[in-house]
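Quick start: read one record
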Amino acid sequence: MKEAEKVALLQKSVRLHTLICSATLLVAVLLLRFTAQNTEFNARRWLMFSALVVAAEFWYLRRVLRQNHHPNSDRLYPDLGAANLLTIYRGLAYAWMAGFLLLPRPGGPMDWLPAILYVAASITDAIDGYVARKTDRVSKLGETLDMESDGLGVLVACMLAVQYGQLPLVFLLVGFARPLFVGGMLLRTRMGLPNYPMTESNQRRIIAGLLMIFLSTVLWPIFRPPETYVVGAVFGGAVTLSFVRDWLVNIGWISPGHLTYRIWRARLKQWSLLWLPVGLRILAAALTSLLVVRLLSGSSDMPAVANLLIALVGALGGAAVLLGVATRSAAGLVSLASYLGYALAGQAALGLALLFISSLLIVLGSGQFTLWIPEERWLRIGAIVDD
């Protein structure tokens, strides 16, 4: 098949999916109009914002359509492929989310829709690369769309979380980190300044994935400050440090190949990723034990059964964290117990401290002296080991 025929087929496919995505917006606006309980929520304004994002996404897709080929070949694929379609419809989920910007919460069950959309989009983000490899359809287009879609999703999720009061205004810097980074590179190019290449990093990918998990959680209406602020400080701080380091490499202030940098970087990684988590695990287990004792002593006004359930979750998570068994997942259990202890059982200071420590463990990992860390395998899927 000639290249021109392939381009024509691809353009026809793009038009079809543009129509499908546009049709879903019409269905959604009717759903919101008749189910939203907040009289101040404007469904037509939601449609306008969402439609603008969909239009921008498909405009960009048409611009990069000729990248629909293998990274090591210039031969176009005649169709978009399943993996690219997953990414395209992930972008549709982000467009739906963008419709809620600058609008009050719709009220009722629709308050949960942004969080549900982001969770669904995050799941497709986790599997589209796998689908591309299994179907032998890895493409430059897929890499481009995946990167841009991730940036859009994080930006919209951060803006919604700030708008709903779940995160502080400063967290917008996390959402705008990638646009600012790319804009800075373009500005340096126009000024005739070089942009130095960055090394591949599995830690960068892990932090990005954990940020998406955090944003998937913080958008749920059941969570409120100050718990979300405490956890957001950990994840936002990790993302900020990652971008600052990359920017210093980009402008040439840090040379990844320089011996001094490599020595200090190795020392920092050894301290922060191997030994600091050990201390955090011990501290988390000790504080979790204290939380369990307080719950079982009946110091809260909650029913005894509720105290017992929270104590069991905390004890299971605390023991697993101490032993280094599925530490990131176990830290999630500790986070759940500490949140419930804070929100329901009146353990304010202890609950917030545990939330902070368990969030650090989720970001840093297990460190030394671990028994079983299965999460590391899927967190590092597709990542290139950073030497």
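DSSP finds 14 helices and no strands in the chain.
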